[in-house]
Amino acid sequence: MASSSLSHPSGEDEDANIDAAAIVAAIYHKLDVQRRMAAKQKLQELGPKAIGPLMKLIRRESRQRERRNRLIAGFALICTGGALLGLLFGSTGNPTGFIGWYFIALVLLLSLFFATRPTLMQMRAVHVLAGFDDARIIGPLAEALQLEDVYTERVAAASLKRILPRVRATEAALIDNDHRTFLYHALQSDDSDLVIAVLAALEQIGDSNALPFVEKLSERPVRTASDLQLRNAASQSIPAILASAARHDVGSTLLRPTVEPAKPEKSLLRPVADARAADSDLLVRPAASIPE
Q: What number of CA atoms fall less than 13 Å from residue 171's CA on the CB side?
């Protein structure tokens, strides 16, 4: 879903008024077609304003998944201990106990299978987020790569590979420093297509902080043909990234905040002193009458 607006993202107060969970739930409502259409229309009207609330929703669901994983890990320890006890009881001629604890061990394995899966709401929110076609989505998608969730990472990477090659230098201000860091770390990805897309974007929006990551990639040991491709691509990108960094530095200098004026006694341009405070002996006076 495209957005033509190029305004900056809304503030925290405005984001708080957007119920991203309700919008996502309505978009995926299976029975109420009108509700789905209304939610999609609402999302279209919000445009980039919905990006922040959607990302907050994804973070919240990710934290919920982590809490669930900790609970399952604790349950796994209990089941493992129980299964070991069950094996001991089974070896003493009690097959009923052995079967019971074997069933618990099977439940443990099934629990571990679902442990790393994101919540349904997170999966849906990621899909909605990835549907935007706007440079402002690059930062949140780069952050989504770091959520340690294979499903979210796959969806985010696919969207980034679509958007990054089309980024222009004029859109550099749409990506803040924190999100740039996530983008730079994406250069270490095993997905060579994603790395190539990141390099293409950095040629337009890269700053001086990107250079160490790109230089490290250009010195990457070559073990496979993919390693050689990425190494060459990084080396070829460095001149363009240097030029982009220079543009970024100039822009930062021109937009730096004003500083407090220097104190008058430390400035070469000083205000004129009060004439009334001048020494009366230094004033210019008319010459006295010369006697003939």
A: 19
**In whole angstroms, what is the distance from residue 200 CA to residue 241 CA?**
9
Specify burial of residue 93 (Cβ count, 10 A radius: 0-12, 13-18, 19+).
Answer: exposed
> How confident is the model over 82-116, as pLDDT tens digits?
666 666 665 555 555 555 656 666 666 666 655 56
DSSP 8-state class, residue 224: S
Q: Which two tokens stand for residue 159?
A: 């969207």
Query: What whole-number distance in Å separates Cα of residue 174 and Cα of residue 85?
Result: 58
Other C-beta atoms closer than 10 Å to the C-beta of 58 total: 29
Coil vs helix vs strand at 130: helix
Q: How far apart are CA 197 and CA 167, in angstroms?
A: 10
Residue 262 has what DSSP assignment? P
Instruction: Render pLDDT for 1-59 as a digit per residue (tens, 0 to 9).
Output: 444 333 344 455 556 689 999 999 999 988 889 999 999 999 999 998 999 999 999 99
Q: Where are the domains of the chain?
A: 19-130, 135-254
**Is residue 133 helix, strand or coil?**
strand
- DSSP letter assigned to residue 287: P
What are the CA-CA distances from residue 134 to residues 3, 91, 93, 145, 262 (Å)? 6, 63, 67, 18, 44
Asked if 129 and 141 touch (Cβ cutoff 8 Å), the reply is yes
The torsion region of residue 190 among left (phi > 0), alpha (psi -120 to 50) and beta comes to: alpha
**DSSP E strands, the chain:** none
For the structural domain made of 135-254, what CATH number should be given? Answer: 1.25.10.10
